[in-house]
């Protein structure tokens, strides 16, 4: 399964005591393909450093970038599907360019994607994704 992880989700899944840590462990155990772009990596680095520390950001990014199933993709077309927070569009553009199955996010701005039929991008919450995973692995 090919996924993008919004920054709000990444911040929630990296702490060892997080109830959402299962998603990070799935990435670490090569159960999912993580799609990244340079723009996404830069945002991850900025937010991880601000929220935790620069050292922690470096460790997490080094691990994510070196996972066997991590793929880097750049979007060369900007769809501009989210008007309310244009910075979120980088996730959509890369999801389309990489043919990702899901964007995992708890950001309400992505709900607009439910009403857009083309290009079809599935943005789901981490709770919804957990149900998808449970159906796949049971």
DSSP, total strands: 5
Judged by helices, strands and strand pairing, the structural class is: alpha/beta
| Proportion of helical residues | 40-55%
Number of helical regions: 6
Strand order in the largest sheet: 3-2-1-4-5
Radius of gyration from CA coordinates: 14 Å
Shape: globular
Determine the strand fraction and express it as a percent band: 5-15%
Mean pLDDT: 91
Order of helices and strands: EHHEHHEHEEH
The CA-CA distance between the termini, in Å, is 15 Å
- Largest sheet properties: 5 strands, parallel
Unreliable segments of 5+ consecutive residues: none
What does this structure look like?
The structure is a single chain. The chain contains 6 helices and 5 strands; from the N terminus they run E-H-H-E-H-H-E-H-E-E-H. Helix 3 (38-51) runs antiparallel to helix 4 (54-65). It has 138 residues and is an alpha/beta fold. The model has no long low-confidence stretch (mean pLDDT 91). It has helices at 7-13, 21-28, 38-51, 54-65, 89-98, 126-136, and strands at residues 2-5, 33-36, 70-72, 102-104, 123-124. The two termini are 15 Å apart. It is globular, with a radius of gyration of 14 Å.
Q: How would you summarize what this structure contains?
A:
The protein is an alpha/beta fold and 138 residues long. The protein has 6 helices and 5 strands. The longest helix is centred in the first third of the chain and has 14 residues, at 38-51.
